[in-house]
Amino acid sequence: MDGAVPLFRMEGISKRYGGVRALEKAELSVSSGSIHAILGENGAGKSTLIKVMAGVVAPDEGRMTLDGREVTFASPAAANQAGIVCIFQELSLVPELSVADNIVISDPPTRFGMIDRKAQRRIAEEALARAGAADIHPLALVKDLPLSRRQMVEIAKALARKPRILILDEATSALTATDVAKIFGVLKRLRLEGLALLYISHRMNEIAELADQCTVFRNGRNVASYAAGTKSDNEVVELMIGREYSHIFPPKPARASVAAVPVLEARKLSWTDRLDNVSLTVGAGEVVGLGGLDGQGQRELLLAFFGVLRGLSGQVLIDGRPVAIASPAGAREDGIGMALIPEDRKTEGLMLPMTVRENLSFAALDRLSKAGIIDRAAEQRLIDDMVGLLAIKTAGLDIPVGALSGGNQQKVVIAKWLMRQPRIILLNDPTRGIDVGTKQELYQLMRKLADAGAAILFYSTDYDELIGCCDRVLVLYDGAVKRELVGAEITERALIASALNIHGEESPVSLGANA
Amino acid sequence: MKDWRYWLAEQRGTLLALGIFIVMFVIYTSNHPAGFTANVVQTAANKGVLLAFVAMAQTLVVITAGIDLSVGMIFTLTNCLASWLVIGTGIETAFGVLAVLGTGLLCGAINGAIVIYGRLQPIVATIATGAVYFGIALLLRPFPGGSVNEDLADALTGRLFGVVPASLVVLLAVVLFVWVPFSRSVLGRAAYAAGSSETAAYMSGVPIRRGKFAAYALAGLLAAVGGLFLTFFTYTGEAAYASGNAYTLFSIAAVVLGGVSLFGGKGSAIGAIFGALAFRTIGDLLFVFDFDPLWQPLFQGVILLIAVSLGAFALFRVRNRLEWFL
User: Fold this and answer.
1) Per-residue pLDDT reduced to its tens digit, A30-48
2) Domain hosting residue A408, numbered range
3) Are residues A30 and A162 in the same domain?
4) Residue A312 and residue A369 in one domain
5) Cβ separation of A310 and B318 shorter than 8 Å?
6) pLDDT computed for residue A505 by the predictor
7) Closest partner residue to B185 among A114, A117, A300, by Cβ?
């Protein structure tokens, strides 16, 4: 804002992951003594941007300057050295070490070559006090602390490194309201001390309270920078909209009257601090989407249905009957017939070194075998059906599934579950990292299965998909359903506004006129 | 909470191992025909420290979330080497000791280099190097034999002031001069951090590779101290395959008994020492009760099974079942 040389500048930064461009000639400049907010929807490039800044990811092109001099960071340690410290969303604390050990971990004080525990303790206590977390004992093990306390330790750890630029990536998402207030006090003090703070958050009220300067990212580039408070929430949403539509979706059927009894129903599901009184219904033939920003409880909700979470409160009903699903094996049983297409196919969906054939028949082995012996002929018939139905491209059924392309691997995961003819299909961001052609096939398939009577619950971080595939979308925020969008209400604008939990009911946001 | 409570929580595994050891040792000596005498303690100490050194070695590697299946073979190799070199005048003997320890250090460093820079899994890498180390041992001593500087051997396996077993004093010295500096150094902390969460450690700029390398190398050194002591007890070297393997497996048992987590990041070599002493005492318990020695492996196995089961209770508290497999 003032004409002085910015403390830190990024110019023309690009980064590609395979065919996906995460950053495209992005620019950013950060000045001392100010709080700079970064906004953008899922996949807009925010995370990649700060990873580049913090030395975690090397950019493909572009330059960065600090104090006017060009810099490159080979590792997080190098960025730290230069005074750039990042508090990541995924905590970077070592669980088995104590709070004090963690706070000084990058550069422990030493005496005669050994770590000086007294000095370490002193540094830790100071840092905790600065972060407003003096209630945390420096000798406590990090793994014994609840998530909100760990987040405070993370902040103390960052402060102990005496940063010039402090990056906070969703750093308040796990905090209690009291802690957030404390942290805001700390951040404002740091601003007075002349630090440059970069603040990434999806909470508009936090940004309104803290930020001096805002930059909006979309499709990997910075599309607007403005002084905080000069744009309304709706204008901000407007800036974030504008993804390029690249997928073709099958037509949605006219909304039929949904059967009186939903196939899948949840009543007031709660689990730790991740799910908060979630109620929903999915009828036969319906594709219901789960929207919202990444990490608002969508995954946990799917895992809850699938019997993975313990200590769940609330009720799950199948065909109107309350059921207790105790494990994934229970979820796939005949009376329930549930299938979950997991997000990480490499660890949760497939046994990579095993063959395509073996992977395909895993979930259905009980149906294909008599007295523990697999009926090879029946197995072959079913596998042939599936390979044909999904058009899985493979050099053979007896090659390791790890040798297939990402899209075909994902098809194997889906085929594996379809072999059981599930009535309820949960999809956890199934198109992440697969090619456009396969994506389109999956959209068609999803609609085909729904038309055949399946109830589909579909979580996606890609708003396009939610708009193109879903009959209804439930938007989650902080583990609770904040909004239900039906039919023509499902627009990018409405999805973003409700994902950010902007209360703009009287504004034209919900009309979605220009989608 | 007060500071001492945190200390207690941190040392729980070590203290539990100490407790098991004391109880076992009291049962052992009170039923021993000779009772609690300097002689009985000395014999027990001499048998115990061998496993204690190897278990310390194993601890260092296990802390980094690895495992070293070659410790028993380094122990055997250095025993064979010592039976050639640790002999003659004082100076010659001293050089021999240094050569033996240096060999152990080198073996450990090779393991570390393969695991860290070659990116092989520790279990595979150390099975292979263990076979190599044993192969060399066999070439050095195709038949049991050799000799050792008996003055030194007797001094280190005897008693100080007529009561204190000298081997325990050496064990204490190794703890003070190897383990304590390591565990309190930046490298030691890096080894713990890497074992607990390598990603978090990396993101924090911790020298993970150097920490792990130091752990593997020092493990070799500690196994060599064990091998040296074996030579002092037996006056000979022997490339005994079964014994080397047994030491490897017992070292893992001792580590677990000593409260060191096989998942890495947690535990101390002192716990492993008590684990080793307790494991040895449990094994010897049957003798004082005049059981058939045939029962020893079975008995030891059952006790070990009970001890390791204690560690599994934490799983009952997990609320997201997918975390079971992390």
Assistant:
1) 999 999 999 887 677 888 8
2) 344-421
3) yes
4) no
5) yes
6) 46
7) A114
Is residue A276 classed exposed, middle or buried when 0-12, 13-18 and 19+ CB atoms within 10 A define those classes? middle
Residue B204, chain A, CB below 8 Å: the answer is: yes
With an 8 Å Cβ cutoff, is B323 touching chain A?
A: no
Residue where the block lists tokens 């580590």: B255
CB contact under 8 A, B196 and A308: no
Are both A189 and A41 inside the same structural domain?
yes
Across the interface, which of A80, A137, A308 has its CB nearest the CB of B6? A137
Residue A278 maps to a domain: yes
Residue ranges of domains in chain B = 10-309
Q: Which residues of A touch B9 (CB under 8 A)?
A: 141
Same domain, residue pair A111 and A235? yes
Q: Find the residue in A nearest to B324 (Cα).
A: A308
Structure tokens at B284: 């010897």
The residue of chain A with its CA nearest to that of B208 is: A106
A353 in any annotated domain: yes
List the single best residue of B5, B263, B320, B326 to mutate versus A (max A Cβ within 10 A): B320
pLDDT at A90: 64
Report, at the CATH architecture level, how domain B10-309 is classified.
Orthogonal Bundle (1.10)
Distance, CA of B221 to CA of B57 (rounded, Å): 8
For residue A488, give the nearest of A503, A502, A505, A473 by alpha carbon: A473
Q: Which residue matches tokens 């494990």?
A: A327
Whether A478 and A513 share a structural domain: yes
Amino acid at site A75: S
B185 touches chain A (CB under 8 A): yes
pLDDT for A257: 57
Model pLDDT for residues A84-131, shown as the tens digit of each residue: 998 876 668 898 899 999 999 888 898 888 899 899 999 999 999 988
Cβ atoms of A162 and A103 within 8 Å: the answer is: no
Q: What are A391's two structure tokens?
A: 């058009």
Contact residues, A window 121-140, toward B, CB-based 8 Å cutoff: 137, 139-140
- Asked if the C-beta of A515 comes within 8 angstroms of chain B's C-beta atoms, the answer is no
User: Closest residue of A to B182, CA-based?
Assistant: A114
pLDDT, tens digit (0-9, with 9 covering 90-100), for A123-178: 999 999 988 888 899 999 988 887 778 888 988 999 888 899 999 988 777 677 77
A225 and A277 in a common domain: no
CB contacts, 8 Å: B199 with chain A: 90, 92
ipTM score above 0.85: no
Which residues, 6 or more positions from A304, have their beta carbon under 8 angstroms from its beta carbon? A266, A269, A271, A275, A312, A316
- Of the candidates A425, A394, A437, the one whose C-alpha atom is nearest the C-alpha of residue A412 is A394
Total domains in the fold of chain A: 3
- The residue ranking higher by pLDDT, A173 or B125, is B125
Please report, for the domain that includes residue A459, its CATH number: 3.40.50.300
From the list A101, A300, A309, the residue facing B189 with the nearest CB is A101
